[in-house]
Design brief:
With 168 residues, the chain is an alpha+beta fold. It folds into 2 domains: 5-79, Double Stranded RNA Binding Domain; 100-167, Orthogonal Bundle (DNA polymerase, domain 1), CATH 1.10.150.130. 54% of the residues lie in helices and 18% in strands. The chain contains 7 helices and 4 strands, in the order αββββαααααα. Strands 1-2-3-4 form a 4-stranded antiparallel β-sheet, with helices on one face. Strand 1 (18-23) and strand 2 form a beta hairpin.
Length: 168
């Protein structure tokens, strides 16, 4: 029988963890410490699998059902929801590691040993004030040369020609 919000709110912790089933593989795990988390059980490649869908009340019953349905679609397409989630997590991590600001900062640290202190601080100041606000959070592979040219033109229009030459 499907769960309702009242049943979930009334579920009290016991000495051992227990689950309340909602149907189609979705269940709510109630831990002895009182935490409640959504689980989805499924079979993939003939083996039973389980994936966590989040914590109640952050993830509501409707959200958990929606996530379960999304995971069921992946299984129907022959994809393991757990593996898909791992791939997405790796892609996000790789994207944040390849952010322009991170790479530019690493480059600056590597090069600044060869520069005077004043020159190194000028370059970093130019990055922070003129470049990072426009392209700092974007993955470096997505930034096109024309976008950087537009950033340089903004510096040029401001009349900071020496700064533009340094960051070029």
């Amino acid at each position: 029988m499907p769960l309702n919000d009242m049943q979930i709110r009334r579920a009290k912790p016991e000495a051992k963890a227990y689950t309340l089933g909602d149907g189609q593989g979705l269940s709510l795990l109630i831990e002895p410490n009182g935490s409640k988390s959504w689980r989805f059980r499924y079979r993939f490649a003939g083996k039973p699998k389980m994936i966590s869908l989040g914590v109640y009340p952050t993830i509501t019953l409707a959200d958990a059902r929606s996530r379960r349905d999304d995971a069921r679609k992946l299984v129907a397409e022959g994809k393991n929801p757990s593996e898909v989630r791992k791939e997405q997590k790796i892609a996000l991590q790789t994207e944040s590691e390849s952010a322009f600001e991170k790479i530019a900062t690493e480059w600056h640290q590597m090069k600044s040993a060869k520069w005077s202190e004043g020159y190194a601080s000028d370059i970093m100041e130019a990055f922070q004030n003129d470049i990072f606000p426009y392209v700092g959070t974007r993955p470096i592979g997505e930034i096109k040369p024309l976008e950087l040219l537009n950033v340089l033109r903004k510096i040029e229009r401001r009349g900071a020609l020496e700064k533009m030459r340094k960051v070029r």
